[in-house]
Automatic annotation (TrEMBL):
Subcellular compartments: Membrane
Keywords, in A-Z order: Membrane, Transmembrane, Transmembrane helix
Region ranges (Disordered): 24-45, 283-313
Major localization listed first in the record, in broad terms: membrane
Protein name from the UniProt record: Major facilitator superfamily (MFS) profile domain-containing protein
PANTHER family: MAJOR FACILITATOR SUPERFAMILY, MAJOR FACILITATOR SUPERFAMILY (MFS) PROFILE DOMAIN-CONTAINING PROTEIN
Residue stretches making up the Major facilitator superfamily (MFS) profile domain: 98-558
Topology within the bilayer: Multi-pass membrane protein
Residues annotated as transmembrane: 98-123, 135-152, 164-181, 193-214, 226-249, 255-272, 352-377, 397-416, 437-456, 468-489, 501-520, 532-555
Biased composition (Basic and acidic residues): 297-307
InterPro entries attached to this UniProt entry: MFS (IPR011701), MFS_dom (IPR020846), MFS_trans_sf (IPR036259)
Organism whose genome encodes this protein: Podospora pseudopauciseta
């Protein structure tokens, strides 16, 4: 997801591109002149409604990240030399605090909702619900986590990320208290749905914040960390819940989630400033490219003399550093052009035409389906005869799941970054986004085999180790595939990455909900071998087709799609 939110990033921001966390298109420059005597002035042409990616992002993803004269990577994008409020210029500790607070938010979203899977069997007995009815505690939140990406992301792009995170984190805290006090199954279900509504804000925006805070050579590793927090909530959560349910009750799992969320809520309020930053490249002395912050009110004008206070360059005045109290503000302004809120809501939809978006959301969706299917079904397998395990022992199946998540995030993040670095050095320092996709071969082989292993293990009542190994192998894809493919999307569509990632996260949850809604009847009708074998075939087909098309032809596709006039 996200769900897992049940949730790469390495995206390339390039020196000559506009790095915008909310997307504002440049105002057209007036070219009207006075008519010659005896002639009338022609009516100016109406401004185009749609624009191209090329007009926002000239490189289309190809960028130089290494110089032959130095072993240090080139900082892409270049942080503003005149604005200490640029998130790229923040001190490392400040960056880490903001990043880990958002990671914790995504973890706790899935910890509190997905963590209940270890208690599903007991909840079904307590409230006298069937397996399909009990599974609704997870299925409907998955759908909500996807759908309401389309609500939160436009609001964050328009009003700022900080206000959205503060509001949604507070709502998540309240919904967990509600769930702990729920007296009926319906009340518990609705508390999970509201929690998913709050947590859906992190599905795409958390990943987009990786772009705000880190340079291109850092993003793969950081996205891997982020994805591990997302998926970790659904592995660590059930593991903890298994022990809590045995010693106390499932309600205490909700209380623990509420307490941890309350602590993180205070951290977000006090220590996570706004990361949205309108980065515009302007030419400084000697033609050097420098960033100008529209959000922070940089003034443009002719500045001369060495006696002026603050760092000054011709044409730009340095921006004063914001105080801690100023950074606590929930208001960071709205786009300064004529972009309206309704355009923010409509802007992402045409981006479904981009092949990288289609590949990422399909790969993420099927990886999520495989993992959540095991989460939903395992307690009904392991807590019933012939295994007859207690919830505590049942929760241990999440240990290999967590290990699979860790290895997947490592492979999709750090390992992919190192591979891309090696490929770039062999290519005269030039980075190509398609380099990331080569290592999709790892989740392709590992998860495809793990899915088949789990299906056979359950249906043939094999030793429990087959189920544990199968689940660990399935979990590998949940972090590896989105880490790789979402970074690829961000590399290709940098100026509109928030909108593109919203499509990936929202669409993948909707597709996953459709599959998982019928997973229980499907298993009951055809058995575990055929059900999980079919899912493995679909998964392998999607990953292979995407690699076969995008690795050899991705660069041509990127340059072609940059001319499509579909960005609102």
């Amino acid at each position: 997801m996200s769900f897992y939110a049940f949730t790469p990033f390495s995206s390339a921001i390039f020196p000559n591109s506009a790095n915008i966390s909310f997307h504002t298109l440049p105002k057209p420059t007036s070219t009207r002149t006075q008519p010659a005597p005896g002639r009338t002035m022609s009516t100016p042409r109406k401004q185009q409604t749609f624009t191209t990616l090329h007009s926002l992002y000239a490189t289309s993803g190809t960028v130089t990240i290494h110089s032959s004269s130095s072993d240090s990577p080139i900082l892409v994008p270049t942080p503003s030399p005149l604005d200490p409020n640029d998130p790229l210029s923040w001190p490392p500790q400040k960056k880490r605090t903001a990043f880990l607070s958002i990671c914790t938010f995504t973890f706790l979203t899935n910890f509190g909702i997905g963590g209940l899977t270890s208690a599903f069997y007991l909840i079904s007995l307590e409230f006298e619900k069937s397996l399909p009815e009990t599974s609704a505690l997870l299925l409907w939140p998955i759908l909500v986590l996807g759908l309401f990406n389309f609500f939160w992301v436009p609001l964050a792009n328009y009003f700022g990320k900080r206000s959205v995170f503060v509001l949604s984190c507070g709502l998540l805290f309240a919904s967990y208290i509600w769930g702990a006090l729920a007296k009926s199954f319906e009340s518990l279900l609705w508390s999970n749905i509201v929690a998913a509504f709050a947590g859906s804000s992190t599905e795409a925006l958390g990943a987009a914040m990786v772009n705000d805070l880190f340079f291109v050579h850092e993003r793969g590793g950081k996205m891997g960390v982020y994805m591990n927090f997302i998926s970790g909530g659904n592995t660590v959560g059930p593991l903890v819940c298994g022990f809590v349910v045995t010693g106390l009750s499932w309600r205490w799992h909700k209380w623990i989630a509420a307490m941890l969320t309350g602590i993180n809520f205070a951290t977000v309020v006090l220590m996570v400033p706004e990361t949205r930053y309108h980065r515009v490249e302007v030419t400084g002395e000697g033609g050097q490219q420098m960033s100008e912050s529209e959000d922070n009110g940089q003034e443009k004008g002719k500045v001369r003399g060495d006696g002026e206070q603050g760092q000054q360059r011709e044409g730009i005045v340095a921006v004063p550093k914001k105080s801690w109290v100023q950074e606590l503000s929930l208001w960071s302004g709205t786009p300064k052009d004529d972009t309206s809120l309704w355009k923010m809501f409509l802007r992402p939809l045409p981006m479904f035409a981009y092949p990288c978006v289609i590949y990422s959301f399909l790969g993420y969706a099927v990886s999520l389906v495989l993992t959540v299917a095991v989460n939903i079904l395992n307690s009904f397998v392991l807590q019933a005869p012939p295994y007859s395990w207690s919830p505590t022992v049942n929760g241990l199946i999440n240990i290999p799941g967590f290990i699979g998540n860790l290895l997947g995030s490592f492979a999709g993040g750090w390992l992919v970054d190192k591979f891309c670095d090696w490929r770039s050095r062999k290519n005269n320092g030039v980075f190509e986004p398609e380099n990331r996709l080569y290592l999709c071969i790892l989740p392709l082989l590992i998860t495809g085999a793990g899915c088949v292993l789990f299906g056979y293990g359950v249906e043939r009542t094999l030793h429990w180790t087959s189920l544990f190994f199968g689940y660990g192998m399935v979990s590998f894809a949940l972090t590896a595939v989105p880490t790789i493919t979402m970074a690829y999307v961000s590399d290709c569509l940098l100026p509109v990455n928030s909108d593109a990632l919203m499509l990936v996260n929202g669409s993948k949850n909707i597709v996953a909900f459709g599959f998982l809604y019928g997973i229980v009847p499907w298993v009951e009708e055809v058995g575990y071998v055929e059900c999980f074998g079919t899912q493995a075939g679909i998964y392998v087909a999607i990953i292979v087709i995407g690699m076969a098309v995008l690795i050899p032809f991705g660069a041509r596709i990127r340059y072609a799609q940059a001319k499509w006039r579909i960005i609102l």
